[in-house]
Design a protein that fits this description.
30% helix, seven-stranded mixed sheet, 20 strands, di-copper center containing domain from catechol oxidase, Immunoglobulin-like, 688 residues, Hemocyanin, N-terminal domain, globular, alpha+beta
Length: 688
């Protein structure tokens, strides 16, 4: 048990006092009396003896100079915390800095222990998680899955009384699994409910949270300033919208209508039916046809008008059309092919890297706030923000996709001004892709047909049930899943020598919700990355097989929903590598679009691009545990491993003569397409 892993004890049961036992009663943190809060200090000796007698492991906490926590004044310990609120973001940045400044793990443990019972629980958890991921001496500590710490942000609160009853009354070995009902937020009279399996998927929402954990928008410069961070903000969210639209077509729904007019009623209502466990208040709902209003919140100092959003958007549009942005000194920064999208990402979000916050504002973040406070913009009714105000819950709301569709449109405006790729940028002399296809892993199954179905899985929520039972308390939930399959690509290398290439595999819908074929100009926006990998091509014909679970986009189920606690870390090398919770990545179970019972056709696209133009000069560890979902998340402490623009080769417009995918592919021998079908089977299969 390393000292660094002791930090995991601080992350369990976020709202319980630190002196209560962790790890099912087996671990106790020995607090100095000075670290107890005012409520518990007078009875400190009694508490320590009462709760620590049965402990197998005691974690000593040494005395340190207590830090000044005034930066968090006004953020209630049991209130709501949001990374979109400037005051909260500033407090998180200060706390991350405090944790990063500590000279060693023991001091960090002491300072964090002191902070834990005095600060907002989500603020503490987020800041400690970011610090642990970015410190050299703690970066191998596995951050727990957030669904096990704050289950209230992911599941129907109706299950919590059942979980507590089961855990309190029934012995560990006899406990039953409590089922979380799917689609509990609306009836099928609401068309948007057809997409609830996507929007309310636990893994999808955890991905969004973990991405913002790896790429915080504010904090110490060393934490925020990562390679191509702004471009990754564009690309990850752009792929979310493309995936969502692809599944909408499967459900016979129109593409997302971008929220470009801030003055018209928002037709979509959303009633989340979720409760914040910290204060037992519900996440407020939004009725249909409500208008955006100016926000002036005296509780947290958030002030933003609808006019601000329009002004910032128009200034960003103007900068794109002019081809440059202005920094605070009035200097022009060109929005060129290399850095333009990265600079725009920092401006639109806006992270602390924005070159001019005064001029371009904080469009993305403040837009989230204006929508999140639509029910109580001036704190008249003492209501907290809705689900759009929190990165763990925002993707549940249909308006998230309309807002981010508008944000994506801003980036696309810049992309459409760039010169189309030429033959030299797209081609790869001497390399011919002769075929591409998919094959299910089961024997005797037809080629180019993928299967999807419902799967019932389990997650242990005990670590998030504050003041609840010891031991495991499992809940089951239903999610989309696909049958395992492989991509099979045949590539001929007639250059006469072995050479490397980058295999890029994408899919896109052939038709919209009515079955009308998409033009290439439309289809280009719906291409979804399935896998990118470096391949070695021997002279002659090469057959490349990539399993679906090797995708560069996804992380396996075991990482999305993993066990928690200082004792839950495996020791065997293989198991440890599988367990390492880098946690950033699209969930494996959502890799394939849902399809339909009769089958939905997609274009499968593969290309092998020129490795000389793709490669990034850097030392890579082939056994590094975090490198498997680099498409959305980059590489830890490294440059993004692909020199091409994110979204290549579909991120730029094409010449007017290219009207179909075939027009795009035919001139390039290193590209090939095939038609595949995705069939959905409406049955529920339990995870083995």
């Amino acid at each position: 048990m390393t000292d660094a892993n002791n930090l995991l004890a601080l992350l369990q049961r976020p709202l319980e006092p630190t002196f209560l036992p962790k790890d099912d009663g087996k671990t106790v943190i020995d607090l100095p009396d000075e670290f107890l809060t005012d409520r518990y200090r007078p009875i400190g000796a009694e508490l320590q003896s009462r709760f620590s007698n049965d402990a197998e492991q005691r974690i000593p906490v040494r005395q340190v100079t207590t830090p000044d926590l005034s930066f968090a004044n006004g953020i209630d310990r049991r209130g709501a915390f949001s990374l979109f609120i400037p005051k909260h973001r500033d407090a998180a940045a200060a706390l991350i800095n405090l944790f990063l400044e500590q000279p060693d793990v023991q001091t960090l443990m002491s300072v964090a222990t002191y902070c834990r019972d005095r600060l907002n629980a989500v603020l503490f958890q987020y800041s400690l998680a970011v610090a642990v991921q970015h410190r050299e001496d703690t970066k191998n500590v596995n951050i727990p899955s957030i669904v096990s710490l704050f289950p209230d942000q992911f599941v129907d609160p109706a299950v919590f009384p059942k979980l507590r009853e089961e855990g309190s009354v029934v012995q560990q070995e006899s406990r039953m699994v409590i089922d979380i009902p799917p689609n509990y937020t609306a009836s099928d009279r609401e068309d948007e409910q057809r997409m609830a399996y996507f929007r309310e998927d636990i893994g999808v929402n955890m991905h969004h949270w973990h991405w913002h954990l790896v790429y915080p928008g504010d904090g110490p410069d060393a934490v925020v300033r990562k390679d191509r961070r702004g471009e990754l903000f564009f690309y990850m969210h752009s792929q979310l919208i493309a995936r969502y639209n692809m599944d909408r077509f499967c459900a016979k729904l129109k593409k997302v209508r971008h929220l470009t007019n801030y003055r018209e009623p928002i037709v979509e209502g959303y009633f989340p039916k979720m409760i914040r466990s910290s204060n037992n208040r519900s996440y407020p709902a939004r009725a249909a046809n409500v208008m955006l209003q100016d926000v002036d919140r005296i509780d947290n100092g958030t002030i933003v008008s609808v006019n601000d959003l329009e002004r910032w958007r128009d200034r960003i549009h103007e900068a794109i059309d002019q081809g440059f942005v202005l920094d605070t000194a009035g200097n022009r920064i060109p929005l060129d092919e290399q850095r333009g999208i990265d600079i725009l990402g920092d401006i639109v979000e806006a992270s602390s890297l924005t070159p001019n916050r005064q001029l371009y504002g904080s469009l993305h973040n403040m837009g989230h706030n204006v929508i999140a406070y639509i029910h109580d913009p001036d704190y008249r009714y003492l209501e907290d923000y809705g689900v759009m105000g929190d990165v763990t819950t925002a993707m549940r709301d249909p308006i998230f996709y309309r807002w981010h569709g508008m944000i994506d449109g801003i980036f696309r405006r810049h992309k459409d001004l760039l010169t189309p790729y030429n033959a030299q940028q797209l081609g790869n002399a001497g390399v011919t892709v002769s075929s591409v296809g998919v094959q299910l892993s089961r024997p005797n199954t037809p080629a180019n047909v993928l299967l999807t179905f419902w799967q019932r899985s389990q997650v242990d929520l005990a670590a998030g049930l504050d003041f609840g039972p010891q031991g495991n308390v499992f809940a089951s939930f239903t999610h989309l899943q696909h049958a395992p399959f492989s991509f099979r690509v045949e590539v001929n290398n007639d250059s006469g020598a072995a050479r490397k290439g980058t295999l890029r595999i994408w899919i896109a819908p052939k038709a919209d919700e009515r079955g009308t074929p998409l033009t290439f100009r439309e289809q280009r926006l719906y291409f979804v990355e399935m896998d990118t990998s470096t391949v070695t091509l021997n002279p002659g014909m090469n057959t490349i097989v990539r399993r679906s679970d090797q995708s560069s986009v996804t992380i396996p189920y075991e990482r999305t929903f993993r066990a928690i606690g200082t004792k839950s870390v495996p020791t065997a090398t293989d198991a440890l590598t599988q367990f390492r919770f880098c946690g950033c990545g699209w969930p494996q179970h959502m890799l394939v679009p849902k399809g339909s019972p009769e089958g939905v056709q997609f274009d499968l696209f593969a290309m092998v691009s020129d490795f000389e133009q793709d490669s990034v000069a850097q030392e890579l560890d082939p056994n590094a545990p975090c490198d498997d979902a680099h498409s959305f998340c980059g590489l830890r402490d490294k440059k993004y491993p692909d020199r091409r623009s994110m979204g290549y080769p579909f991120d730029r417009r094409t010449e007017d003569t290219v009207r179909t995918l075939a027009d795009f592919v035919t001139p390039n021998a290193n590209m090939k397409t095939a038609t595949i079908q995705v069939k959905f089977n409406n049955t529920v299969i339990a995870r083995t």
